[in-house]
């Protein structure tokens, strides 16, 4: 009996040391940096990541109904918190991995002149923003318009994307001349790659904090904890900031 | 709890969209179905395949291409802008055009099958009685193929009511203009407002079931057994 127990314990230790395959839910606005981070993490630790990208709301519903994710990178702070309250996430494991920044963007090189002037006086038909009820970037966009005193004036020209990715598509395809998108979508390696943009000053909206949480399914997984630790490290931070997010260093 | 004012707005918009699309599709789809049923052209296979495409294409693909085509740089967008109509995405008529593509096979195929099932004879007999082409269509084909037309109208309407992916892609979620019931439900689910989602989703389920049930009862009662959904 003792020997059986001992071999079971040993087997357990071996399993823990072995590389794991982790299933991770990631908010779609964080797709590009997460792919880079995953590559670095896999190389560093030998664990493998299966990444699922999608809207935080959908992931929340799926996790509540038993989806097999071990870690959740949300686009907001409310959903990880709600999961923790519901006992579906490990208490105390929540932290802000990135702070999103908002940009007013146009595919037209000359439309936006690095300020908000175009919103009030510009010649445009449609202003795209993410649905403020669904997406934190949409809520932030409405807040900016309100603070500029332009909410009512621009409202007839709003078109709402279901998420920030679709909003960006509306602008990129020219269907909306202007749109509030995530800076991370248009910035790579520190500069805006296409069209013209105004990076909205942080004072005009509440910080768009994106929280990560260890889910109940990952509680006993050293790999899942390693991923969260890795996310806090210098290497991951550098990647996250290169895409236009703020991290712990520069966060407001 | 019941429906909110926004829900009613979405419901009436959806009904208006489905009615408009069904009427237009009966007008557009009937000649196409007629031609597909009777033509021996070598283009028949090609046109038939194009009409049937939305049956197998994911709505996201259709919506994505429509967004590009109807945008200011796309062919449809440049045409509508040249005509002074502006661009179509984010408008009610943009949804109408998209839905016409999307629901086309559900209208064309039942009509086509009904006309094929009639065969040549009634039409030839009418022709020997000196009925002109329009006369032949309205006094012979239309009454005999009536079950096919009813099936087509019901399926076209129901399928447009149930449309989601395409509208999500090109709609822009504007209340009273492009925010239809399926999008409203999606919003509720995404904002975790499951109680309101249940109301609308339950109503949608009942509606769809009632439509299909009435369709099947109608088909059962209809003496013509030759009507088919098509393949």
Helix/strand/pairing class of chain A, anyone? alpha/beta
Please bin the fraction of helical residues of chain B: over 70%
CATH fold topology of chain B: MetI-like fold
End-to-end distance of chain B, in Å? 42 Å
Rg over C-alpha atoms of chain A, rounded to the nearest angstrom = 21 Å
CATH superfamily of the largest domain in chain A: Periplasmic binding protein-like II
The mean pLDDT of chain B is 89
In short:
Chain A is α/β, with parallel strands linked by helices. Chain A has eleven helices and twelve strands.
Describe this protein's structure.
The complex is a heterodimer of chains A (252) and B (231). With 252 residues, chain A is α/β, with parallel strands linked by helices. Chain A folds into two domains: 2-99 and 209-242, Periplasmic binding protein-like II (D-Maltodextrin-Binding Protein, domain 2); 102-199, D-Maltodextrin-Binding Protein, domain 2 (3-Layer(aba) Sandwich), CATH 3.40.190. Chain A is 40% helix and 22% strand. Chain A contains eleven helices and twelve strands. Chain A has helices spanning 2-17, 31-45, 56-64, 78-85, 117-121, 136-147, 151-154, 164-172, 183-186, 222-232, 234-242; strands at residues 21-27, 48-54, 71-73, 95-100, 102-106, 127-130, 158-161, 178-182, 187-188, 191-192, 196-199, 208-214. In chain A, the strands form three sheets. A five-stranded mixed beta sheet of chain A has the order 2-1-3-12-4, with helices on both faces. In chain A, helix 2 packs antiparallel against helix 11 (234-242). Chain A starts with a helix and ends in a 10-residue tail after the last helix. By secondary structure, chain B is mainly α. Chain B is built from eleven helices and no strands. In chain B, helix 6 runs antiparallel to helix 7 and helix 10 packs antiparallel against helix 11. The A-B interface holds A 55, 57-58, 60-61, 125-126, 128, 131, 133-134, 158-162, 166, 169-170, 173-176 and B 67-68, 70-73, 86-87, 89-90, 168-169, 172-174, 186-187, 189-192.
């Amino acid at each position: 009996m003792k020997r059986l127990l001992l071999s079971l314990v040993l087997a357990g230790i071996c399993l823990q040391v072995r590389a794991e395959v982790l299933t991770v839910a990631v908010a779609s606005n964080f797709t590009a940096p997460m792919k880079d981070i995953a590559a670095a993490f896999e190389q560093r630790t030998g664990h493998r990541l299966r990444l699922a990208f999608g809207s935080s709301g959908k992931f929340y519903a799926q996790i509540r109904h038993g989806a097999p994710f071990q870690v959740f990178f949300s686009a907001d702070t409310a959903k990880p918190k709600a999961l923790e309250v519901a006992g579906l996430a490990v208490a105390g494991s929540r932290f802000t991995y990135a702070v999103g920044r908002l940009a007013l963007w146009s595919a037209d090189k000359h439309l936006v002149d690095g300020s908000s002037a175009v919103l009030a006086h510009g010649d445009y038909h449609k202003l795209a923003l993410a649905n403020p009820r669904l997406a934190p970037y949409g809520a932030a966009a409405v807040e900016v318009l309100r603070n500029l005193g332009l909410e009512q004036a621009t409202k007839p020209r709003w078109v709402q994307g279901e998420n920030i990715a679709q909003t960006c598509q509306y602008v990129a395809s020219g269907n909306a001349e202007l749109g509030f998108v995530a800076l991370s979508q248009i910035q790579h390696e520190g500069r805006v790659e296409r069209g013209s943009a105004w990076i909205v000053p942080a004072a005009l909206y509440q910080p768009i904090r994106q929280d990560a949480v260890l889910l109940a399914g990952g509680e006993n997984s050293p790999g899942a904890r390693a991923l969260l630790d890795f996310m806090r490290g210098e290497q991951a931070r550098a990647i996250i900031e290169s895409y236009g997010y703020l991290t712990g260093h520069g966060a407001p | 709890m019941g429906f909110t004012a926004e829900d009613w707005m979405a419901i009436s918009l959806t009904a208006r969209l489905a009615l408009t699309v069904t009427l237009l599709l009966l007008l557009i789809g009937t000649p196409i179905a007629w031609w597909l049923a009777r033509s021996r052209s070598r283009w028949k296979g090609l046109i038939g395949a194009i009409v049937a495409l939305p049956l197998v294409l994911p709505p996201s693909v259709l919506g994505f291409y429509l967004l590009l085509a109807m945008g200011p740089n796309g062919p449809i967008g440049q045409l509508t802008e040249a005509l002074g109509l502006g661009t179509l995405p984010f408008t009610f008529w943009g949804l109408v055009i998209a839905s016409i593509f999307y629901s086309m096979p559900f209208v064309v195929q039942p009509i086509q099958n009904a006309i094929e099932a009639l065969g040549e004879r009634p039409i030839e007999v009418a022709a020997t009685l000196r009925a002109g082409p329009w006369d032949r269509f309205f006094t012979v084909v239309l009454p005999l193929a009536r079950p096919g037309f009813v099936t087509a109208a019901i399926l076209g309407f129901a399928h447009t009511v149930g449309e989601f992916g395409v509208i999500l892609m090109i709609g822009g979620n504007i209340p009273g203009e492009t925010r239809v019931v399926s999008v409203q439900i999606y919003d509720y689910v995404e904002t975790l407002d499951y109680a309101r989602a249940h109301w609308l989703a339950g109503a949608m389920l009942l509606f769809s079931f009632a439509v299909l049930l009435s369709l099947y009862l109608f088909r059962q009662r209809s003496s013509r057994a030759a009507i088919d959904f098509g393949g």
